[in-house]
Amino acid sequence: MEKNPVIDLEAEKKEILKRYRALLTVCRRRLEKGDKELIRKAFEISLEAHKDMRRKSGEPYIYHPIAVAQICAEEIGLGTTSVVCALLHDVVEDTDLTLEDIRGLFGDKEAKIIDGLTKISGVFDQSSSLQAENFRKMLLTLSDDIRVILIKLADRLHNMRTLESMARDKQLKIASETLYLYAPLAHRLGLNAIKSELEDLGLKYTESEVYHEIEQKLAESDPERRKFINKFIVPIKEALDEAELKYKILGRPKSIFSIYHKIKTKGVPFEEIYDLFAVRIIIDTPVDREKADCWRVYSIVTDFYHPSPERLRDWISTPKANGYESLHTTVMGPDGKWVEVQIRTHRMDELAEKGYAAHWKYKEDGEERESQLEEWIRKIRELLESPEQNALDFIDDFKLNLFAEEIFVFTPKGEMRTLPANATALDFAFDVHTKVGEKCIGAKVNHKLVPLSHPLKSGDQVEVLTSVKQHPKEDWLGYVVTARAKAKIKNALKEEKKKKAEEGREMLERKFNHLKLDFTVQNINLYATYMKLPSAQELFFRVAIGMLDLKTVKNFVRDKDKKPSKQAAKPESKQPSLEQMVSNVRGKSDMLILGESLDKIDYKLSPCCTPIPGDDVFGFITINEGIKIHRVNCPNALALMSNYAYRIVKAKWMSQELLSFLAGIHISGIDEIGLVNNITKIISSELNVNMRSISFDTNDGTFEGTIMVFVHDTKHMTSLMNKLRKVPGVVSVTRIDGKS
Ligand code: MN
């Protein structure tokens, strides 16, 4: 509002109608009788309800629901019900309209979806409650109607596209959540285009410098890339024409996020990433000839270019669990460059870009694959039902399963099952059945005996060995990667503990009776406190397993009526609650200024990412150690910002040349005589940097080293790294997180 003191209402009205018509155009393909009227009705209600509201950018609010509806129809391929719900998605939350109004105006189905969307809307806006609990709530809606999540993803995508006008701390929080949960969720639902865009936008706001650098380098190298692709596809085109196949060839650069990920995980510079792009061949062919024709194209491609035997991926015979189908190969192209080639049909391409929702259009062969999605949803539902699992644990476990690559294994009867990569024999056992998992003592993999913890590989045939005497053990939690197995083991352990505690309770009761002490709740709790235990349950359990000497009851009886010691009560009241700490810190200032007076506010630089001045940073209020400063790109940052937004404080550096901060550098290259000497010379003499530690490993002529140095700020650090890069023999120099 502030930005547009004079608003041309007429022009705005025209623009709103223009956008609405664009939405209708997108929906047109699939409109049935009466649909247009429904959409119009939803649009008018939403327009009226939001009429006095504006977005942060100053634009009329209605632009947002229209855009979300358009994403649903155009980019996810959803139908009229979803478009209607998307138009109304913020109405119940933000205006006077109620769910009952929606039910009356539209119907049960619409009311139910909007109810789901409203319930989970707290995920973005509320900064004070536990995000994890909200995420969990959101996932719960999955089991009601998957459209709720799909519309939510469209909502998030539009919010990310328009994040520019938000304040910096909001941007960080929303972008972190997006990378932490929404992008993986989109991936798991097979919405590849949306997943990539969410990741790119997330990166743009969490690490804008890196993002823009890659973006620019991609643009610069574009002409060269085009030339190369054109040269590469000439012979393939000719052969495809000759084979009379209908096809389309695209040469697309990989997403900025995936390039960034590669730079970060592989430690190679942009210039050395060979697979910056993939060539995609999309053929138009009837469903019953898909597989044969894709392999025909494969055969044509490899007639001209040699394939790398390790890099053939056949997701046509066995689609990924998110529905992805495609044939990938990497071949040696002209000029000695590896090129990834993706071969798929038009149908597979739609499915890969838009996910299952688009797939629902193809009803002929939908059966089997739709049930795979349903199978996944069933598993999530089961997880969510496991009663007392901590929400944070849940999100952690759940996330692991969103990201993981998949492997395919077989039962002794040849039935195929999908598991995440790194799954073990024990995961497999729990996947078969909870009872099988709980009684598992080992397995036979490809007829060879292996322990529970044995990691499985694609193609393994697994037979689970069980024993009635077996029980889940604490250390099993370290053997499994699937959220399902983890939850089941935790439940079983809890049950076990309960049973044990029951025995302990009886033992304790006998002891109390023996000492003529009443076995009342009050006395039990007093005794638990006396033994410094958190609960009666824990007390009983320790008695049962013999961790607690029953002789102490006698001492308790002796001390019970003495005056309660002051010491015991003290430490508890001294420690302020987290809420108090948060409000204390927030009360002081809105922004932590770092570096000017290290002693004024109690903060520490976190060892997990060793921030230095110049880094983009934030403060995190910890329970026991005051405020910790993390880099925005710290490996833990996404999780902290997504789950504990209310404990984050804004922070920035004062320019600072007097103090030095510890940071780590990783160096690798070819081992040359005098190399270590040259490196240390640069560090100590040339730049006057203090070195804390240095360690080098050499291996058959190559070396890798880690150096911990004290520097003033990022500028200082960059200049040091640039000097090190010039040392003969040094191939790569990167900054590392933490001290490892
Ligand atoms: Mn919204």
Summarize the structure.
The protein is of the alpha+beta class and 740 residues long. It contains 31 helices and 20 strands. The structure holds manganese (II) ion.
Q: How are the SSEs ordered, and which strands pair?
A:
Elements: H1 9-27, H2 35-49, H3 63-75, H4 80-87, H5 91-94, H6 99-105, H7 108-119, H8 122-125, H9 131-144, H10 146-161, H11 168-188, H12 192-206, H13 208-220, H14 222-242, E1 246-253, H15 256-266, E2 277-284, H16 290-304, E3 306-307, E4 313-314, E5 327-332, E6 338-345, H17 346-354, H18 356-359, H19 366-385, H20 391-403, E7 406-410, E8 416-420, H21 425-432, H22 434-438, E9 440-445, E10 448-450, E11 462-466, H23 483-514, H24 521-530, H25 536-544, H26 552-560, H27 566-574, H28 578-588, E12 591-594, E13 603-605, E14 617-621, E15 627-631, H29 637-643, E16 648-653, E17 661-670, H30 675-686, E18 690-699, E19 702-711, H31 714-725, E20 730-736
Parallel strand pairs: 2-6, 12-16, 13-15
Antiparallel strand pairs: 1-2, 3-5, 4-5, 5-6, 7-8, 9-10, 9-11, 14-15, 14-16, 17-19, 17-20, 18-19
Helix pairs in contact: 1-3, 2-4, 3-4, 3-10, 4-7, 6-7, 7-9, 7-10, 9-10, 9-19, 9-20, 10-11, 10-12, 11-12, 11-29, 12-13, 13-15, 14-16, 23-25
Bound molecules: manganese (II) ion.
Manganese (II) ion (MN) binds next to loops.
